[in-house]
């Protein structure tokens, strides 16, 4: 994998450890995408007993999963220990008086990498992963791990970011120097191919564009810092950018201003698939290739 795509995992962990306290104040996109993922569950018949939230962050998605599946055990897994601590504090603050009196057991949490899941084979019924897999380096390895821990007929549901994400910021940094300044993300069709190679059945994927707006370039960068979404590519610059170079970036970003605001665009990719059984794997072409359905989804107003 080229430096443009390769993620420095130590940098990712450190960024999210630092961002845990400020994450919820800036994670507008993450909450919106989580809500849109949850809406998709309304149309899927599945009653999981054990759910893995892979990349749980501060627990927003986990809370929805517990509300939706009150009888299920939700396991929160995240690379950053501070994120799990923030999730636990969120749960405590949301407890009513009755729950506090009876001191319920804390949710299960695992501080680990989704590319190396410390779980037994066939141990979970559903994997939920919201805006996390864009930080991994080996999609094939990750999907193989996810399939390994899923039970037969278990479901994987995820969201991630596509290559058009933050194209305005990437354009603004173009030509400033030889370093990479914005993370690169994998195309939806390549993710679908990786699912197929891992042996998932009936994969369905779709994509939509979501734009957040800001007053200036520095506000964009502040939000990215607050959620821990630093540039984590191996080819990033290691020093601070000079004032002259930064002014060039700001001037270049200004070309994208519309209606008085600067947009930060995100290409959000959604997918779900099942751990293949003989029944589910029957959806193949005549030459033995698995069929992947791509759904064109109109953006929400």
TrEMBL record:
The keyword Glycoprotein does not apply. Residues 52-158 form the Methyltransferase type domain. One of its GO terms (biological process) is methylation. Its EC number is 2.1.1.197. Keywords: Biotin biosynthesis, Methyltransferase, S-adenosyl-L-methionine, Transferase. It catalyses: malonyl-[ACP] + S-adenosyl-L-methionine = malonyl-[ACP] methyl ester + S-adenosyl-L-homocysteine. It is an enzyme of class 2 (transferase). GO terms for molecular function: malonyl-CoA methyltransferase activity. It comes from the Bacteria. It holds the Pfam family Methyltransf_11. Pathway: Cofactor biosynthesis; biotin biosynthesis. The keyword ATP-binding does not apply. Converts the free carboxyl group of a malonyl-thioester to its methyl ester by transfer of a methyl group from S-adenosyl-L-methionine (SAM). It allows to synthesize pimeloyl-ACP via the fatty acid synthetic pathway. Belongs to the methyltransferase superfamily. This is Malonyl-[acyl-carrier protein] O-methyltransferase. The lineage of its organism: Bacteria, Pseudomonadati, Pseudomonadota, Betaproteobacteria, Neisseriales. The gene is bioC.
């Amino acid at each position: 994998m080229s430096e443009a795509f390769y993620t420095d995992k130590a940098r990712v962990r450190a960024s999210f450890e630092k961002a845990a306290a400020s994450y919820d104040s800036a994670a507008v996109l993450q909450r919106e995408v989580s809500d849109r993922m949850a809406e998709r569950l309304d149309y899927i018949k599945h009653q999981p007993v054990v759910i893995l939230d892979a990349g749980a962050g501060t627990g927003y998605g986990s809370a929805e999963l517990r509300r939706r599946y009150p009888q299920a055990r939700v396991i929160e897994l995240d690379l950053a220990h501070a994120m799990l601590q923030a999730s636990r504090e969120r749960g405590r603050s949301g407890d009513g008086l009755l729950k506090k009196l009876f001191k319920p057991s804390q949710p299960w949490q695992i501080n680990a990498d989704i590319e190396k899941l410390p779980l037994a084979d066939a141990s979970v019924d559903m994997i939920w992963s919201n805006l996390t897999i864009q930080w991994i380096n080996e999609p094939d390895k990750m999907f193989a791990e996810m399939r390994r821990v899923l039970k037969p007929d278990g479901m994987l549901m995820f969201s991630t970011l596509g290559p058009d994400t933050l194209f305005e910021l990437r354009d603004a940094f173009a030509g400033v120097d030889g370093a990479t300044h914005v993370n690169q993300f994998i195309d939806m069709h390549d993710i679908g191919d990786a699912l197929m190679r891992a042996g998932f059945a009936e994969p369905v994927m779709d994509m939509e564009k979501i734009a957040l707006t800001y007053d200036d370039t520095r506000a964009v960068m502040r939000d990215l810092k607050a959620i821990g979404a630093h540039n984590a590519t191996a080819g990033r610059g290691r020093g601070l950018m000079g004032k002259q170079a930064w002014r060039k970036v700001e001037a270049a970003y200004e070309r994208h201003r519309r209606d008085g605001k600067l947009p930060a665009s995100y290409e959000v990719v959604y997918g779900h698939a099942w751990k293949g059984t003989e029944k589910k794997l029957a959806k193949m072409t005549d030459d033995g290739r698995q069929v992947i359905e791509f759904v064109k989804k109109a953006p929400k107003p």
